[in-house]
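Progress narrative, work stream C.
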Amino acid sequence: MSRAISSCGTLGYLENDTNWIQCAQFFKQVNDWFDVFNVRVPRSDSRRRTHAFALALDEQNRILN
């Protein structure tokens, strides 16, 4: 979702006075939060935010703060 909003904003499909940058950042943050909390396996792939909580604590705390 955040990439789609960013792409549309960059290509000029969204009005210049809208806050599409903040909106895209918000959706990315929410997605990252779900990645941290919605983990079922210790290490699913190379994305550190999707590791089980505390296996990549520095990255996960950065996202949550």
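Work stream C, second folded protein:
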Amino acid sequence: MLANSPLFRGDPGRVEIPLHLQASLRRLAERAYRRGNRASLGWTSKDGEPIPADHVSQLALRNLCKVRPASRNRSFDRAELTDLGHEVAAMVACAKREGER
């Protein structure tokens, strides 16, 4: 029944991810991130650049990352990529390498 719907006809085409989200996706793939002490800090890692909180929210809306809540303290919440997020991060990295050649 859904296959006959006009929403599902044709080729879905390419999915574009904005450059600022590509950078955040790459950083999430490289290391673990935890919520900062203040909301203005966004998400931080021990040795990397912070990721703005709205980037993590946008990636979560696209099902590319998930937020794992800590039981008591919100500052221990962690953001990590989903399986789809890992696949997309690998495709973005591959496309970037191909573009540099």
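The CA atoms of residues 25 and 77 lie 18 Å apart. No further action is required on this item.
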